[in-house]
Amino acid sequence: MKTVSSLKEMFEFSRKVKDRGQTIALVPTMGALHEGHLSLITAAKKKADIVIVSIFVNPLQFGQNEDLKKYPRRLKDDQNKLKPFDPITIFTPGEKDFTPAALAAGIEVEILSKPLCGKARPGHFRGVATIVAKLFNITQPNYAFFGEKDYQQQLIIKKMTKDLSYNIEVFSLPTVREYDGLAMSSRNIYLNERERSAAPILYKALNHAKDIIEKGEKDARRINLIIAQLLGREPLVKIEYVGVVDPETLEETKEIKGKILIAIAANIGQTRLIDNLIVNAK
Ligand code: AMP
């Protein structure tokens, strides 16, 4: 298994792969790998000759009071989890190399970056898009894989790819969940026992909303209220937002018709969790 840290070495590796006429799939991650990440890697292995998994805790996407310092970093563990996928290439750029303090250029995907997570995390998606663009430029992938768990993120990456004419096919894959519905996340390890047992309420609330919509409820405001009430029953949950929005534009919906996205962000204790569900209304 190959682990590359140098940008130059990564450039050269990708160029050689391309020169040989082989295809590359990129799976960008922040490490602390779990089954959600591994599902993306499994799909990437099926699609391309060479798979590159980047592991980089991206400082640009963390706000000032967020968990950058304590975010789990476990490269050895991650390498072990990736062994069954060998041959596979791990790209672990160094922070100073990859995000120098003087970094002035950045990618802004306007409009899509403003609602939902963008409200409480200004600059977050600029940080994500900028790093993904750098990863695209360095690894030169034919394909890139993202999770629907971070729905807004994959939408922004698809828009960036299209608007900036990257010749890359971007795939988004379904959320992998724990036995009780909790969306897998590297942040779940922060949860204490009490918080962990409260956390599946996010997915329960999403499913409850889905049931109601499928029974004919059309009023997005009512759905929003019902979710907020349900989450409000769990004292450990502090809602950041509940969104009932158009899945393409992320604009708030008033009357539910066709496909809609229901998205939640909430703090459980000190841990910020997000989850979402696409619902097909009649
Ligand atoms: P992260 O390491 O959290 O930045 O995630 C790296 C990639 O894995 C992103 O594209 C995420 O959307 C995706 N991902 C994270 N959690 C899951 C999950 N539970 N199921 C599927 N994909 C996921």
UniProtKB/TrEMBL annotation:
Its EC number is 6.3.2.1. It catalyses: (R)-pantoate + beta-alanine + ATP = (R)-pantothenate + AMP + diphosphate + H(+). Its main location: cytoplasm. InterPro entries: Cyt_trans-like, Pantoate_ligase, Pantoate_ligase_C, Rossmann-like_a/b/a_fold. The keyword Cytoplasm applies. Beta-alanine binds at residue 61. One of its GO terms (molecular function) is ATP binding. One of its GO terms (biological process) is pantothenate biosynthetic process. SUPFAM superfamilies: Nucleotidylyl transferase (SSF52374). ATP binds at residues 30-37, 147-150, 176, 184-187. It is found in: Cytoplasm. GO terms for cellular component: cytosol. Keywords: ATP-binding, Cytoplasm, Ligase, Nucleotide-binding, Pantothenate biosynthesis. The active site is at 37 (proton donor). The reaction proceeds by a bi uni uni bi ping pong mechanism. Homodimer. Catalyzes the condensation of pantoate with beta-alanine in an ATP-dependent reaction via a pantoyl-adenylate intermediate. This is Pantothenate synthetase. The gene is panC.
